[in-house]
Every structure is written in structure tokens, then in C-alpha cells.
Amino acid sequence: MEEPLDLFHAWLDEAGRSEPNDPNAMAVASVDANGLPNVRMVLLKHADAHGFVFYTNLESAKGGELQAQPRAALCFHWRTLRRQVRVRGLVSLVSAAEADAYFATRPKDSQIGAWASAQSRTMEGRFVFEREIARYAAKFALSQVPRPPHWSGFRVAPLEIEFWRDRPFRLHDRLVYRRDTLADAWRTERLFP
């Protein structure tokens, strides 16, 4: 049986050749304290047998929600390929070393933006944000920008991965990999479209 991560990487590689923008874009769904779902687009930065990794401000809405209820759903949609991958799983923070290593690869303007943005919180006006950007740009003008303590990554360790492929006349192909715990072997099922 093919491992789901092998199939995912094959589809992601294909998307990289056909999608005009951000083939690694994915929707991330979390749940707030009232049980209401939230979904937003982020960029996948790494995927391996341990999970799907993305980075964000830990004090943002998604950061708070994922720390309070460490479960998430992801959705990749590649329109040009007429394919979709859905993932559901358990959430954990990446290690500080992993977050530091990725942060160091970001453009300096993006690093400064991570310091300047009080993500998801009310902003009195655009000038407030621009002032914070200028403040941190001056602070780190002649030095490397360290990773802010409120910025890190999340890993979604999959318990379920569904591969959906468009077929004529809505006779789509749906293949699901499931496991009850992260230690279990994958089992597969085909679903009616």
C-alpha cells in the first residue's frame, strides 16, 4: 500500500508545476472557545511523516485556538489539477530550534513584520502598524532579526488524509487513509463521491 505522504508529495510536486500561485496554500480550520469554526489560508512550509507544518503568530486567533484545542483540519485545492486533499489531525508546536531555523530563512521585511504585527487584534489605523514596522526596522537595521517569542510553527499530525480527484459526470474518486492513533498503521477506504 502506498503511504499517504508519498501520494501527497507527488500531488504537491505536480501542483508546483501547474498552479500559477502558491501551490502550497492550504486552508486551516480551528475552533474557537465558543465552538465556532474558523478557517483561513496559510502556506505549508514542510510535510513529512510527523505532519504538516505552518508558521504564525501564537497570539493570533488561530494561534490561540490551536493551543486551546489542539486539533485542526487542512484543505489543499489545486484547481488546475482538479484535485483536493483534506487532512484532519492533532496539533502541536514545532521545536524552538525548528522555528528558529525557518525564521532565519524569511526575508528581513517579513521578519520585521512578525515583530510589528499584533495579529488578529484591533488596529486603530494603518499608521499604527506602519509606525511599528518603522520602529522594528530601525531596531534591527544593523543586526540579524531574532525570532519573536510569540511567533512559531504548528504541526498537524494526521489521523485522516483524503485524496479527491475530479472525474467526468461527478463520478469523482475519493480515497481516504485513516488511523485511530498516530502509532497505528494506515487503513484505506474508497468513498462514494
Can you walk through the features of this model?
- This protein has five helices and nine strands.
- The protein has 193 residues and is of the alpha+beta class.
- Strands 1, 2, 3, 4, 5, 6, 7, 8 and 9 form a nine-stranded antiparallel sheet that branches.
- Helix 4 (108-116) crosses helix 5.
- The mean pLDDT is 94.
In short:
With 193 residues, the protein is an alpha+beta fold. The protein contains five helices and nine strands; from the N terminus they run H-E-E-E-E-H-E-E-H-H-H-E-E-E.
Label this structure with key terms.
single chain, 193 residues, alpha+beta, Pnp Oxidase, Chain A, 9-stranded antiparallel sheet, 5 helices, 29% helix, elongated
